[in-house]
Amino acid sequence: ETGVTQTPRHLVMGMTNKKSLKCEQHLGHNAMYWYKQSAKKPLELMFVYNFKEQTENNSVPSRFSPECPNSSHLFLHLHTLQPEDSALYLCASSQDHSSGRARETQYFGPGTRLLVL
Amino acid sequence: AQSVAQPEDQVNVAEGNPLTVKCTYSVSGNPYLFWYVQYPNRGLQFLLKYITGDNLVKGSYGFEAEFNKSQTSFHLKKPSALVSDSALYFCAVRDKAYSSASKIIFGSGTRLSIRP
Q1: Which of A55, B61, B71, B106 has its CA 20 to 30 A from that of A62?
Q2: In Å, how far is A72's CA from the nearest CA of chain B?
């Protein structure tokens, strides 16, 4: 349960605010992910970082800006969000094989429940 | 293209009865398959996975899942349900042909409700 931590757990922000979500993994993994979970919708992959390099951006609006300063930390910077961005934001990590064959389990943090007013 | 389907939004089972949560998948090659559980106000928690080998996979909390290649299914099962099993369950699939870590697709989730 404490392998992947996220702060804050809850966040309420106005549309003009700037805030950041933080994720930290204590598992020694080399890949980290941001997901968005909205009610009654499948989990949406937002960003992927492998060895601190962003490898995927799934058409995420620019008001979401990720940052990965090292393999243990991942941030999601938020600015000028919309009410429809209210959701549970989940961070995950995994250990990718050096061969590039990724098959390992992703371990998730508890999430940040975001409400945009 | 790969996809995963969980045909039931909700499954209701009496405590002590066996439970099944269904999952079917579609991949162009061979699949890696996963089950995750999400309790209220928590992140997803890994339950079990199928990579290769025995089609019956055993996981946490007494859960198991059977990989059926001909039916492209990976149903989650438990012989005797507990009230504490009530949660949201997600099936996920990755095509072995994809080398990218990101190519995992999650189902929409099935809410399991166990009544005392």
Answers
A1: B106
A2: 17
